[in-house]
Every structure is written in C-alpha cells, then in structure tokens.
Amino acid sequence: MxxxxxxxxxxxxCGAPEPAWAFFxxxxxxxxxxxxxxxxxxxxxxxxxxxxxxxxxxxxxxPAYYGRDNVRFHWSIExxxxxxxxxxxxxxxxxxxxGPALDMGCGRGxxxxxxxxxxxxxxxxxxxxxxxxxARERLKLEVRTGDFLALPLPEEHFTAVVFxxxxxxxxxxxxALRRARTLLRRGGLLVVAxxxxxxxxxxxxxxxxxxxxxxxxxxxxxxxxxxxxxxREGFELVRMDHFSFEQNPYGWLQSLYNAAGFExxxxxxxxxxxxxxxxxxxxxxxxxxxxxxxxxxxxxLSILLTVLEAAFQRGGTIEAYAIKK
Length: 325
What we know:
The chain is α/β, with parallel strands linked by helices. It has eleven helices and eleven strands.
C-alpha cells in the first residue's frame, strides 16, 4: 500500500482548516492503495489522498487508456463523440472571437479540428506523445507535450483556453487556472468542464460514482468551489451549464450498475473497442447479459435523473464559461 501523504494544513482554495475525510474511493484494481477523498467543509473543494507524483501516475494511463490510434469506443459511440465536439466548438465560437485557441488535454484533437474550421488557430497540450498521436499525425494539428505549468507558451496571446475534463487530472489545478489567465488576452474566454462533486450523482453514488476516477483525478470540484476558484483567479463567469447529454446520463447509468454490484465500470469497458477494453466481455458473460437485460430500466431512469438534477442545478458535470477581466 502506498504511504498516506498528509494534506496541507489548510484548504488550498479557501484557506479553511484541513479538509475533512469524506470516504475511501475505489482504485482501478484490487492492488491499488485505498485512496481517500477529502473535502473542505467550507468551500467544498476536494483532493485525492495520496496524490501520486508524476513519476507514478503514468502507470494509470496505459496504451489501452487511449486505444489503438487514439480511438477508444465502438464506431457508433465515436459518431456521437464527434457531434458533441461540434456543439462545443459552436458554443466557443459564440462566446469568443476567432484567434489562437489552446486546448489543455486535447486528446485526439477533434475539438481543435472543429475550431480550426471555425477560423481559430488551434494549439493542443497533452501529457505524452502517445496521447497526442491522432491529433498530430491524422489531423495535422500542433500539439505540445509535457507539464502545462512548465511548457513555454506565449502570454496574453490566446482568445480561448479550454480545460474539458482535464483540469481535475492536473496535480496543481489551481495553479493551472492562474496560468491560463496569463495566457489569455483581456476579454479572452476560459472554458472549464469538470465532474460536479456536489451533484446528486456524486452524493448518492459515493465511491461508486463513475466520474470519481481516482487516482487520475487529483482534484474534485463542486459548483461552489469552481465558482470560487474562477473568481479568485480574476475570471467573470458568463455561463454555467448543468445539463450535459454527453456526460450526465451515462454517469448515472454506470454509477447505477456499479452500485448494483457489477464489475466496476464494466459497461464502460463493453462500449469500448477491443484495443481499449480493460475487462474482456467474455470474462463475465453472465454480468454482460444482466447489464443488457437491465438497460430498459436503468437507461430511462438515468435520463430522468439527469433532467431532474439539472433542473435543481446539481448536474453530474458542470461546464463553466468565463471571461478574463
């Protein structure tokens, strides 16, 4: 078991006394240490303990995490992914002027490719050459690899900086927001999407929550803590979305299966292609059949819960759009 790393004496976001223990979270295999999630009782900002150093976290991003040629899912799911990226690029183009755009954690580069067609000058950042392969080789995009906080990037240069489900993967997410501000022009757009630790999904699912994803997620934001972090770093919030058809219905669906005792995140493995499956379907044929039989019940329930949680501003993920003051 990895050693327990002590937390800072005070919350790194609001300065309140040491965040309280929330629960033990499931790792990605039985051999993993028992990761704790600790959450500040004042602002709600959470951290994973122990926080693995960069020298160890790479083991949690194996080749299967990205899939062959950076393609993870069945072709039908891949088609939906591209539609969602188009919608994202359209919204960014409505809220910012065309110009240099930076996507931190750009993945396959589909969003950047869409922004390029909309008149932006795209630049991606990824943690490794493997993660950047598709964007570079297939889409011919410029992608830089390495530590976002250390990479040489021009200041006050970008009209948009995007952290789409990547901020929580960074060791120092609050410093990343600060650096994003230095990179943006005045009036530039910051886009942040993160799992919402204050959501109904998170509160009801606990350690079974699909979007928890420890230890890859170093930080756990809620609506209150994200708004506070953006304000502290000099951003003015202009839009906050609580409904995400891309993320939230599936978050409920997989969390329901996890809570019902199925192999952890087994459905997520099923909908991937063979090159990125962590659990082969034939290893648990009875569970695969049971998942299929429960789908007509769990899927409508997940959609209903998604609509309800969004109506009460407790969506499983949140999308923030903010302007540099």
